[in-house]
Automatic annotation (TrEMBL):
UniProt entry keywords in alphabetical sequence: Glycosyltransferase, Transferase
Molecular function terms, GO-annotated: glycosyltransferase activity
Coiled coil: none
Gene3D superfamilies: Spore Coat Polysaccharide Biosynthesis Protein SpsA, Chain A
Domain of life where this protein originates: Bacteria
Ranges for domain Glycosyltransferase 2-like: 14-126
Protein name from the UniProt record: Glycosyltransferase family 2 protein
Family affiliation: Belongs to the glycosyltransferase 2 family.
Species this protein is from: Duncaniella muris
PANTHER family: GALACTOFURANOSYLTRANSFERASE GLFT2, RHAMNOSYLTRANSFERASE WBBL
Length: 339
């Protein structure tokens, strides 16, 4: 692993994790370089052992972008852990920025100023809009993430598959349950102190788990919508891909197992696995056998992996939360403002 060039006294490391994403670097890295204020931040690409032309592209076309080069693919979670360990001695903050994100204007300064003036904040996200439909929020994060009583994630601006148009209705900063890993600004020392992203997750739900642990450790999470980024989404795996289904179902169960108090955790997990069985039945009814098998495999691997997490948090952070299934499917509430 090598870092190209020594760090300068910037406060923020903007880190793009890349694996065989030459086309994304070519398309979106120029906007990050152009619109990231050099007075407070440096741009890094952490390459996860790419075998395409990514590294050659960086050397040839982006000589001022700093690089962290890994010899193998560590996955999203461990790749970022290793990158943040590398930059933490020199930078107070990092931004985990997806490679399929385009930025405009000064997207970073609002988050930086918020973190500097709110030491209780462990992480923040900007407003995340769709790159293909910029008038709409983007599925993965929108204007801030929340969890319902059963551990289902939803967003200010997106409930399940319903995504709202951005009309400025969520432009105020708000304390959230989780901030999106598409553009996540973290306090480096605090990030490392809570263990960073769980590498066992590999990818998907790992930032929600991280944010849950940050909140259990006493810090706040915020959405700061005065800065905005534009996310393509599905750049690595489309939403219908069985691999994504597998990771989402498995990791959501692992997240509940880790972060709920032991008293009541088993009951909550049994109920959640019954709800997942309904999802499996829906896949089967639609003849989507690939995703149906993914749900079965997710539950099998959860059963195998869960014993590693022998934790007992003192606080149930899901207590008193709404039931999104009830709100969305029965009461037809499909906007965050409805409840």
């Amino acid at each position: 692993m090598t870092v190209a060039a020594e760090s300068v006294p910037a406060r923020v490391a903007v880190i793009i994790l890349n694996w065989n994403g030459e086309k994304f670097l070519r398309a979106y890295l120029p906007s990050v370089v152009r619109h990231t204020p050099s007075a407070i931040a440096d741009v890094f690409v952490a390459d996860n052992g790419s075998t395409d032309g990514s590294v050659d592209l960086l050397k040839r076309d982006f000589p001022n972008v700093r690089t962290i080069l890994f010899s193998e693919n560590h996955g999203f979670a461990e790749g970022y852990n290793l990158a943040i360990k590398e930059v933490a001695p020199h930078y107070k903050y990092s931004v985990l920025l997806n490679s399929d994100v385009e930025v405009k204007d000064d997207w970073l300064t609002p988050m930086f100023n918020f973190m500097e003036s709110h030491p209780e904040a462990g992480a923040v996200q900007p407003k995340i809009l769709s790159l293909t439909e910029p008038e709409k929020f983007e599925y993965a994060g929108a204007a801030g993430g929340f969890l319902d009583r059963n551990g289902y994630p939803y967003c200010r601006g997106r409930i399940f598959g319903t995504v709202e148009t951005d009309c400025g209705q969520y432009d105020s900063p708000i304390q959230v349950d989780w901030a999106s890993g598409a553009a996540l600004m973290v306090d480096n020392s605090f990030y490392l102190s809570v263990g960073g992203l769980d590498k066992a997750f590999f990818a998907h739900m790992e930032e929600i788990d991280l944010c849950w642990r940050m909140r259990l450790a006493g810090r706040q999470l915020w959405a700061v919508p005065s800065g905005a980024v534009y996310h393509l989404g599905g750049g690595s795996l489309p939403a219908s891909n069985p691999r994504k289904t597998y990771l989402n179902f498995r990791n959501n169960l692992l997240m509940l197992r880790k972060n709920l108090p032991r008293n009541g955790r088993t009951r909550r997990l049994v109920w959640r696995r019954l709800l997942d069985t309904l999802a499996w039945a829906k896949f089967m009814a639609c003849l989507d056998f690939g995703n149906a098998r993914a749900v079965v495999r997710a539950h099998r691997d959860f059963s195998r992996m869960q014993a590693v997490y022998d934790t007992d948090p003192r606080v149930d952070l899901l207590s008193g939360r709404p039931n999104i299934l009830l709100e969305y499917y029965l009461l037809r509430h499909d906007r965050f403002s409805d409840f």
